[in-house]
Design brief:
Blueprint (H helix, E strand, L loop, with lengths): L1 H11 L5 H23 L3 H9 L4 H30 L9 H35 L8 H19 L28 H29 L12 H33 L12 H35 L6 H14 L15 H29 L8 H24 L1 H7 L3 H31 L5 H27 L16 H30 L39 H10 L13 E4 L4 H17 L3 H19 L5 E4 L1 H11 L4
Antiparallel strand pairs: 1-2
Length: 656
């Protein structure tokens, strides 16, 4: 009996690698510490009522952001481990299988479990406030979306210490991802972790499309929406069309592995190229899904800190929606070298070049907005200015890759690695950092320390260029992606050493950001009013942090920068808009069903990974029971009375 237990434990837990053992110990100690703190300070009820069951979009947004920062740490550590392995020829810091696992999890975590939740966090915090709404269209679904994402991410991440991580690459091409190439459990963790999280992402996309189209403040027309809201709309429309493709693709791969189907196996009549087409029909729109909201963030910041109306508003809207549309017609440029034929290559080369045009339009609009503006170089503005040259270089190298004959040289090389990191870090990460710094006072009522923020800024930027510029040269020298070692005579070591130094500089930048947050909390200095940056849009018209109901009175919007123009009118001596009388505010009640349902999804996914139907089937039954319970829930909302609104507003605004 004891021998069977030991055998099961050796299969269940990942053993034999000191790095993984260290991770297991640190995770165990962290869990013990969290449980101890919650128990010692008697915070379990607070955690359940205030956070785990909350349907408040602002709290959900904060939970998304916390999760994304944790995933940034995990994905960043993976990146540093890879750079250490590649710093010198024939290094044996990571064995080949462990290296493959790390570069697979690094890509998945950074795109799906870091960038996506950081994006959704900003959606939740900002969009309802910018459109003058009191919540999102479907608060219950919003909570379910977060917990589906969270437990999907946890299911994927637990593979690092239980069962084994996937090692077939972040897009899991067959036949490597089929049972013949990946007989272990890692690929099943990949399928179910992404599948569960992806359903939550699709629900978020639907929720925010409805919120933006149906819940804008009275008088706010589509062409009066803030540019960030337009970027969210374009991103969420893309999510609605792209993520069902991912769901179907992963389900077909699951059928191949679990039931012996042959959708993607040549020996059974399938075709792995079908998988590659399907995954990139999702994958390339996904790149634009995460970059479009960053464009909206930059638009808000440039306008605010240049003290000018955004230049070319209509052209910006057209550019955003054009990118959303054209993103579905570029996927085949990822396999120019796979024999699709000259006509197919020419079509996708042309569409890839076309999509660069609306992207360039936005860059010129930001530059013209700054032209002759009274620019204030705060931390958010510094990230925005740094983004422009970085993204321009990334965009130009993307156009180079779109030239099909040239791509035969660049394909699968470190030139490509440098390109997409230049776009995704220089665009997405820089953009979301800018957004975090910009809206942090709105979330928490205090600014982050500017001095430490600028140290982090310079370490991030210098480290980025030191890390990725040498990789363009390495690609042209013949270094291919996915290699875990190389020979001394290749001549790649000097540039790899430089690249590794840059990666550690970015790691130091992350430490500065953690220090910045801790320092700002310790030396808390509350903002005097809700308008931390002398902003232009509606979120700055209410106290910070915003009350539960956001707006005591729904704003009446008459122009694009309505709050800015209202301040200008008051400064000119004109009377403020008359205030409507307060009325009771309708709000949704908290619910524990989203959390419980997501735990059931996690249970079902874990059961399918291990082929434990005794666990998977009860998990699915639990999902069905939660859906049934929700359908019979009638006491789901309440009204905040006028006297409570008055007390809250008086306390927030510092009046009696």
């Amino acid at each position: 009996m004891l021998d069977k237990i030991k055998e099961f434990a050796s299969e269940f837990f990942v053993t034999g690698d000191p790095l993984i053992l260290g991770a297991q110990v640190s995770i165990g100690l962290s869990l013990v510490a969290i449980i101890f703190v919650l128990t010692f300070f008697k915070k379990w009820r607070w955690l359940w009522t205030e956070w785990l069951t909350s349907v408040d979009h602002k709290k959900i947004g904060i939970m998304y952001i916390i999760a994304s920062i944790l995933m940034l740490f995990r994905g960043g550590v993976d990146a540093l481990l890879m750079r250490v392995q590649l710093a010198a020829p024939e290094l044996e810091f990571l064995h080949a299988e462990h290296y493959n696992q790390i570069f697979t999890t690094h890509g998945v975590i950074m795109i799906l479990f870091m960038a996506m939740p950081l994006m959704f966090g900003l959606f939740n915090i900002v969009v309802p406030l910018q459109i003058g709404a009191r919540d999102v269209a479907f608060p219950f679904l919003n909570s379910l979306s977060f917990w589906m994402f969270f437990f999907g991410a946890m299911l994927f991440n637990v593979s690092f210490i239980i069962g084994g991580s996937p090692d077939a690459g972040w897009l899991a091409y067959p036949p490597l991802s089929e049972l013949s190439g990946s007989p272990g459990l890692g690929q099943d963790f990949y399928i179910w972790g992404i599948q569960i999280s992806g359903i939550g992402s699709l629900a978020t996309g639907i929720n925010f499309v409805v919120t933006i189209l149906k819940m804008r403040a009275p008088g706010m027309k589509l062409m009066q929406m803030p540019m960030f809201v337009w970027s969210v709309l374009s991103s969420c429309v893309t999510i609605m069309f792209a993520f069902p493709i991912l769901t179907v693709t992963l389900f077909l791969l699951f059928l191949d592995r679990y039931l012996g189907a042959h959708f993607f196996t040549l020996d059974g009549g399938g075709n792995p190229m079908m998988y590659i087409n399907l995954i990139w029909m999702w994958g390339h729109p996904e790149v634009y899904i995460v970059i479009l909201p960053a464009f909206g963030i930059f638009s808000e910041i440039v306008s605010t800190f240049s003290k000018k109306k955004l230049f070319g508003y209509k052209s910006m809207v057209f550019a955003l929606m054009s990118i959303s549309f054209f993103s579905f017609f570029t996927w085949a440029h990822h396999f120019f070298t796979m024999g699709s034929g000259a006509n197919v290559n020419a079509f996708f080369a042309l569409t890839t070049m076309l999509i660069a045009i609306p992207t360039g339009v936005k860059v010129f609009n930001w530059l013209f907005t700054m032209y002759r503006g009274r620019i204030k170089f705060t931390t958010p503005m510094m990230w925005t200015v740094a983004f422009i040259p970085c993204f321009v270089v990334g965009g130009m190298t993307g156009v180079l890759l779109s030239v099909a004959p040239a791509d035969f040289q660049f394909h699968n090389s470190y030139f490509l690695i440098a390109h997409f990191h230049q776009v995704l870090i220089g665009g997405v990460v820089f953009g979301y950092f800018a957004g975090l710094y910009y809206w942090w006072p709105k979330m928490f009522g205090f600014r982050l320390h500017e001095g430490l923020g600028k140290w982090a800024f310079w370490f991030w930027n210098i480290g980025f260029y030191v890390c990725f510029m040498p990789q363009y040269a390495l690609g042209l020298m013949g270094m291919t992606r996915r290699v875990n070692t190389y020979d001394f005579d290749m001549g790649w070591q000097p540039l790899n050493v430089i690249s590794t130094v840059g990666a550690f500089l970015m790691g130091a930048a992350f430490i500065f950001q953690v220090w910045q947050i801790a320092h700002s909390i310790k030396f808390y200095k509350k903002e005097k009013d809700g308008d931390a940056w002398d902003g232009r849009t509606l979120e700055w018209s209410i106290p910070s942090p915003a009350p539960l109901y956001n707006f005591a009175r729904l704003p009446q919007v008459t122009s694009q920068d309505d709050w800015w123009e209202e301040k200008q009118r008051i400064a000119a001596g004109e009377p403020a808009k008359p205030l409507a009388p307060l009325e009771p505010i309708h709000m949704p009640k908290n619910s524990g069903i989203p959390f419980i349902m997501s735990v059931c999804w996690f249970t079902a996914g874990f059961g399918f990974v291990w082929d434990w139907l005794w666990m998977a089937i009860p998990g699915l039954i639990g999902v069905a029971v939660c859906m049934l319970a929700r359908s019979f829930s009638y006491d789901t909302d309440y009204y905040i009375p006028v006297d409570e609104i008055e007390r809250t507003e008086a306390a927030l605004r510092g009046t009696k």
